[in-house]
Amino acid sequence: MTLRNLFLVMFAAVAIAMSIAFGLAPRFEEHADEPQPPTMAVATQEPIQAPGSRSAFIDQEADGHFWTRADVSGTQIQFLVDTGASIVALTYRDAQRLGLKPEELDFDAEIRTAGGVTYGAPVTIPSIRIGKVKIENVDAMILRTELDQSLLGMTFLGQLDSYEFRQGQLIIRQ
User: Fold this and answer.
1) Contact (CB, 8 A) for 95 and 149
2) What is the pTM of this model?
3) Is residue 13 assigned to a domain?
4) If we measure between CA atoms, which residue out of 65, 43, 56, 62 comes closest to residue 128?
């Protein structure tokens, strides 16, 4: 077998495997003359959920970002969802609204951001709830002045069963 033929055989095998994996391979039915149910799911208003799962849907805003209002231990806080943030980050003002007394904390934790190095005060948030999804004991960082908006980072998102972006929505599941 020549190198070219070997390459073609490998390419065909990969193409077939990908077709099967993504459901693109043709299906052969024993009773081809009988009507078959449609193979593609029909789009619905809300994405399909696993039975018993707790989910929340966050719409993409006109600015292209996903913003959500969360219940943080009984107080409503506006968050920008940021999968690039390793930790939930709170503005100084939001920390005050939560009763965390940032004026009494030491801002000695070094934080490296795209804009450079800044300092924050580590805290643990008792709970963050968005819709039916509630995560407890979330590690967070309070920033003194460098943050204009609280960020919902990976210390929250990483505790979810899943999250996905689909058709202009962020779907989070617990």
Assistant:
1) no
2) 0.68
3) no
4) 56
Q: 80 is in which domain, residue-wise? A: 55-173
Dihedral over alpha carbons 4, 5, 10, 14 (to 10 degrees): 100
Say if 142 falls within a structural domain. Answer: yes
Lookup: tokens for 172: 């989070």
Tell whether 116 is covered by a domain: yes
pLDDT of 9-29, one tens digit each? 343 333 343 333 344 333 333
Residue type, 97: R
* pLDDT over 80 at 7, yes or no: no
Q: Which residue has the tokens 């078959």?
A: 36
Is the distance from CB of 75 to CB of 96 less than 8 angstroms? no
Report d(CA 39, CA 49) in Å as an integer: 19
In angstroms, the CA 16 to CA 3 distance is 20
Number of domains, the chain: 1
